[in-house]
Structure formats: C-alpha cells, structure tokens
Amino acid sequence: MKSRLRRRRTRLHLAQLTEAQLRDVGLTPEMAEREIAKSRLLMLDRPYQPPF
Predict the structure, then answer these.
(1) In whole angstroms, what is the distance from residue 6 CA to residue 16 CA?
(2) Pick from 12, 9, 22: which is nearest to 51 by CA?
(3) Rounded to 10 degrees, what is the CA torsion of 27, 3, 46, 28?
(4) What's CA 33's distance to the chain center, in Å?
(5) What's phi and psi for 39, nearest 5 deg?
(6) What pTM value is reported for the model?
(7) What is d(CA 14, CA 26) in angstroms, rounded to the nearest whole number?
(8) How far apart are CA 26 and CA 39, in angstroms?
(9) Cβ atoms < 10 Å from Cβ of 40
(10) Which residues, other chains included, contact 13 with Cβ-Cβ below 8 Å and sequence gap of 6+?
C-alpha cells in the first residue's frame, strides 16, 4: 500500500514539472505523460495541464 501511495505522489510531482525541469532529470514530456497516465485518477487531481 505504501509503495502505491509513493508512486502516486511521485506522479503528482512529475505532473507539476516544467519542460526544462524534466530535461534536467533526463525525461521528455512524452515520457512524463506516459508515466502520469499510469495513475487513472491522477488526471482528475490536476488543476491544470503542464506547460509542455
């Protein structure tokens, strides 16, 4: 259960990163979106779309 919550929190943080920040950690916006999409309800929690 804890690992599921940790993954969800990580995806929430990932959803808030800018394109420049994603590049800094070695991810493309497409890679980030694929990871974010793994949380089915995450899209409901996001107040806005990332700037990429």
Answers:
(1) 16
(2) 22
(3) 10
(4) 6
(5) -95, 105
(6) 0.66
(7) 12
(8) 21
(9) 7
(10) none
